[in-house]
Amino acid sequence: MISLEDIASERGLDVNDVIEFLNDFVDYSEQEDLRELGDALNSGDSAKVRTRGHSVKGAALNLGLTDIAKVAETIEKKGAEGSLEGCQDLIEELSRMVGELRDFLKQMH
């Protein structure tokens, strides 16, 4: 999956700080971003889909979560194009990936 040591080293952080940042990312993604993405998709709000996709992408990239960032970038692009076709599957994939990260972090304790 991910190497906490690599992420910490690349960012000049302690591994415990990385774990804390990743937990914050998971919490915010699950409580805000994924919920908002679903709401925006259901209401056909492509601008909001783009904005939330962009938000997740940026946060994921800052934390070295490139696989999550790629899915979020695809969501962002679809929103920017005004084409929400396939977004439901992408949001579900993003949710699954964030859930796997949450489970991985829980195993760290």
Count of individual domains: 1
Q: In the CATH classification, which architecture applies?
A: Up-down Bundle
Strand content: under 5%
Average residue pLDDT: 94
Radius of gyration: 14 Å
Number of helices: 5
What's the shape?
elongated
Which series of helices and strands comes N to C? HHHHH
Sheet with most strands: none
According to CATH, what is the topology?
A: Four Helix Bundle (Hemerythrin (Met), subunit A)
Helix-residue proportion: over 70%
Structural class: mainly alpha
Terminal Cα span: 17 Å
Text of the CATH class: Mainly Alpha
Detail the topology: elements first, then pairings.
Blueprint: H1 4-11, H2 15-43, H3 46-62, H4 66-81, H5 87-107
Helix pairs in contact: 1-2, 2-3, 2-5, 3-4, 4-5
What features would you describe in this structure?
- Helix 1 (4-11) packs across helix 2.
- The radius of gyration is 14 Å and the shape is elongated.
- The mean pLDDT is 94.
- The protein has five helices and no strands.
- The protein has helices at residues 4-11, 15-43, 46-62, 66-81, 87-107.
- The protein is mostly helical.
- The longest helix has 29 residues, at 15-43.
- The chain has one domain: Up-down Bundle (Four Helix Bundle (Hemerythrin (Met), subunit A)), CATH 1.20.120.
